[in-house]
Amino acid sequence: MAYVLIVDDDEDFSSAVSTVVTSAGHEVVTCETTKAALVSVRNRRPDLMILDVMFPENESAGFDFAREIQAQAKVSNEKIPILMLTAINTKSPVGFNSRDIDDAWLPVEDFVEKPVDLSVLISKVTRLLEKYNRL
Fold it and tell me: Inter-axis angle of helices 61-76 and 34-43, to 10 degrees?
């Protein structure tokens, strides 16, 4: 059983994702802000983080938080795999995909576009947990 942290300001969405991840046999904690998530990570390092890109306080808060978490992980040598959720591709012409992943600019493992296909989400969660031997 892995410990998964879901960071998203949409309570209904977090609840749905939490239900699916929990039903796959994992322990889940949800946070609605990156500040709450930072406290959570300091208390217990997750095996995987599912992180939204945009938050009400800052449209790039997810990016900033991913960089902060991975910078801390470099110091402790304990990388946290991050699966980033984004609706950016439907809301702006930026267009993120796996080719944009970069340890400095965007230190995440993969993307899932909103609206989320929950079967795709859980398969990516499982793949990342297996990749990092966190099952």
Answer: 20
Look at residue 91 in the predicted model and tell me its pLDDT. Answer: 44
Q: Which amino acid is at 132?
A: Y
CATH superfamily of 3-116: Response regulator (3.40.50.2300)
**pLDDT, mean of each 10-residue run, the chain (135 residues):** 97 97 98 97 96 90 92 85 79 48 68 91 97 93
CA–CA dist 102, 108 (Å, integer)? 8
